Design the sequence.
């Protein structure tokens, strides 16, 4: 049974290829972070090694060993894959040495299964040298191997690599489906499931992770509370916030993305549309939608978008936040009350 959920097109393609025995030697699995790329890769690795009747059965020894990460013929290569000495130091690229190791292993027959599967998680991190080296294996693959390239940033891959793989794109799944899986398969209570489904933006893996870890929601509430206080703050306070918020790139980007989703919700509320993401802040969204004009809201959304583009090209973070502080609508005392929503129970 496939563990991949909500990707009927991808599964139909693979099932057809499995039935006709026309699987490709290399697949490029594309999709947003936490959308299910590794789950699909694992499904495919099971399917080509399954000993059951309906592959991937999920129950035979081979399927179970793959699920446990113990199968000798499945190799995952990523920035985090531990090297020989057992040392894990943070790397910035997947190197040519990783690919040479892959090629050596690929030249040997499978050890316990039918097909050796090499999963390259974060294929955008392949160095140019590594990608060119891999190209040779993709063009002339030894028998009994399959290469799965996983990426959220397809545009950063060499076009020669992309063109030689069969491409599978994973799409965001509906919030209704995410909600259903959270409730039915993971026992999450319905209010929390509804909220996580909306916040996940179609990435089931993200929703599942956050469903067992409260820190994300706590941090989100804190970041939103901070934004509410900035809305009614004076200039001096705003600029000292800019210094604090523009401290670290990853956190700056996360904050702006969170704000963008929030302001999109204010815009939707202003236009009378109910499909908002921050469903635990409805009354606050309604208040801000009332206080601000559509133009004010739209201008600030533009400003947030520009900020993300600037972060992507390494612009000065503090300056980015200072400009945001100038552009963020300013309604002193309009909504002094910055209470948090009632926490959603676990
Ligand atoms: Zn099986």
Sequence:
């Amino acid at each position: 049974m496939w563990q991949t959920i909500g990707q009927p097109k991808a599964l139909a393609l693979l099932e057809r290829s499995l039935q006709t025995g026309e699987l490709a030697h290399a697949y490029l699995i594309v999709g947003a972070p936490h959308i299910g790329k590794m789950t699909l890769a694992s499904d495919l690795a099971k399917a080509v090694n399954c000993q059951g009747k309906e592959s991937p059965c999920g129950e035979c020894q081979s399927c179970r060993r793959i699920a446990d990460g113990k199968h000798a013929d499945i190799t995952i290569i990523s920035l985090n894959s531990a090297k020989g000495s057992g040392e894990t130091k943070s790397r910035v690229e997947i190197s040519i040495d990783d690919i040479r190791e892959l090629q050596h292993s690929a030249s040997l027959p499978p050890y316990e299964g039918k097909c050796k599967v090499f999963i390259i998680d974060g294929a955008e991190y392949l160095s140019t040298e590594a990608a060119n080296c891999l190209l040779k294996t993709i063009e002339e693959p030894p028998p009994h191997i399959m290469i799965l390239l996983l990426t959220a940033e397809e545009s950063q891959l060499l076009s020669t690599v992309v063109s030689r793989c069969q491409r599978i794109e994973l799409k965001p799944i509906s919030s209704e489906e995410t909600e259903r899986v959270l409730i039915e398969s993971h026992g999450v209570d319905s209010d929390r499931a509804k909220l996580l489904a909306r916040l996940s933006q179609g990435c089931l893996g993200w929703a599942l992770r956050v469903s067992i870890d409260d820190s994300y929601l706590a941090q989100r509430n804190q970041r939103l509370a901070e934004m509410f206080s900035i809305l009614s703050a004076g200039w001096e306070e705003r600029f000292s916030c800019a210094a604090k918020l523009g401290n670290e790139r990853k956190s700056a980007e996360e904050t702006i993305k969170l704000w963008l989703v929030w302001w999109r919700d204010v815009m939707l509320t202003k236009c009378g549309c109910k499909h908002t993401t921050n469903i635990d802040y409805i009354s606050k969204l309604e208040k801000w939608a009332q206080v601000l004009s559509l133009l004010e809201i739209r201008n600030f959304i533009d400003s947030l978008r520009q900020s993300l583009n600037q972060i992507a090209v390494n612009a000065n973070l503090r300056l980015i936040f200072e400009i945001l502080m100038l552009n963020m609508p300013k309604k002193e005392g309009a909504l002094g009350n910055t209470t948090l929503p009632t926490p959603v129970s676990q």
In short: The chain has 15 helices and five strands. The beta strands are 26-30, 74-77, 116-121, 145-151, 166-169.
